[in-house]
Amino acid sequence: MSKPPRLAVIGHPVSHSASPRMHQPALDDAGVDASYIAIDVEPGKVKEAFSKMQEEGYIGCNVTVPHKLEAMEICDELTDDAKALGATNTIVFREDGTILGHNTDGAGLSQAILEDFGKSLSELRILILGAGGGAGRAIATQCCREGAPAVYLSNRTIEKLEPIAIDLVDNHGGKLVTTLSTDTESLIEAASRVDLIINATSLGLKPSDPLPLPEEALLSRHMVYDAIYNPPVTPLLKAASEVGAKTSNGLSMLLHQGAFAFEAWFGIKPNLELMHKALLQK
Ligand code: ATR
């Protein structure tokens, strides 16, 4: 007999989401009688979707683009992580009818960097490419919250960075926060001062995309993390490997944010190995 749908990811579009594929084996392994599905929800309809899920006895859901802000506004309560990141990616429908919003993206990034590179964000000088976008800003916020000693923010549209830098310093413990444009000289200079480079731009989704920073900026001592996981090897990661840098892609962030979401729903850790295996199978 098929299991009742009691968890979901909502997004628009959502059919590409890897979350159902990743969570189902972990639910089965934990003996939870639930299936995890993808639900396409149009912008402006998140409240309606939550009410329907609550009526149907859902445990919770994940929230992906473009609903992370809309969902946050509907929650009755937010975790400190969700408050700090200003968005929610994980929802718990409580038995008393209230809705709790988590954000596991930041913790997911932190765990990914720890496992992939053996380093904590608190000990790394970090350059974030695309820090003016939604994903980049969340990454920058997490880096500052964890006490990274220096954070360099770069964005094609540099005007977006000033208010972000001020917020990082005033509200998220940002220490040395520097903003820079995407010109060759600035990027080479900033890269020479950091340990970790994170790509949060959309450059690399297409094989014909240019690198998000000049190739000369990449050094063998760098750790280079690309938030993109499809394709698994972006032009940036290829170029970074070629100079001998350590590299990793966004699959680990996806995995760990999912594992923290599972913990938010059930209070236990999921079988990470099964989730990882499921993500690698397409
Ligand atoms: P969001 O993450 O907010 O949904 P996005 O359109 O996916 O936004 O873009 C993410 C990041 O990639 C942004 O920082 C964007 O830079 P702008 O703020 O200048 O738009 C960056 N980006 C997208 N295309 C780019 C390109 N061709 N060159 C450099 N940066 C680019």
UniProtKB/TrEMBL annotation:
Top EC class of this enzyme: oxidoreductase
E.C. number(s) listed in UniProt: 1.1.1.25
Gene Ontology MF annotations: NADP binding; shikimate 3-dehydrogenase (NADP+) activity
All copies of domain Quinate/shikimate 5-dehydrogenase/glutamyl-tRNA reductase, residue ranges: 119-202
Pathway noted in the entry: Metabolic intermediate biosynthesis; chorismate biosynthesis; chorismate from D-erythrose 4-phosphate and phosphoenolpyruvate: step 4/7
HAMAP family named among the record's database cross-references: Shikimate_DH_AroE
This protein's name: Shikimate dehydrogenase (NADP(+))
Natural source organism: Rubritalea squalenifaciens DSM 18772
